Amino acid sequence: MTKKKKIEPLTGESLLKKVKELDHLNKEEKAKECGYYTVTKNGVERVNMMKFLNALIDAEGIQLDGKQATNGRGGRSASYRISVQSNGNLLIGAAYTKQMELQPGDEFEISLGRKHIHLKQLDREELNV
């Protein structure tokens, strides 16, 4: 029985190219062919899927360890993007209202543009007219 020489794990563009060439194999076989395995003392080959998948993520340029906005608490940060919900509503979340220091009961006048919505906060004096 001939011993297979272990290759150095591929990274970057060479990893992406090799994975595309191996599209007929399952993910474990791809990882092994790209060098992401170890051989135990007993001669058993073990595929290291975590290292393989992390290398693919890095090769694609995806940043998973981006800086998180931390204010000492959990929760979401404002992304400044919203989507129309299935019921047709637009929901402006608490992250925005907190940032604007809005309080329950604050009222706004809505004016519509071609592709924008303008909110004008009404003063308490305007409401008492």
Please give a structural write-up.
The chain is α+β, with helices and mostly antiparallel strands and 129 residues long. Among the domains are: 12-60, no CATH class; 95-127, no CATH class. Helices cover 30% and strands 12% of the residues. It has helices at 12-21, 27-33, 49-60, 94-99, 124-127; strands at residues 37-39, 45-47, 108-112, 117-121. The strands form two sheets. The protein has a two-stranded antiparallel sheet with strand order 1-2. Strands 3-4 form a two-stranded antiparallel sheet. Strand 1 and strand 2 form a beta hairpin. Helix 1 packs across helix 3 (49-60). The longest helix has 12 residues, at 49-60. It is elongated. Residues 68-72 have low confidence and may be disordered.
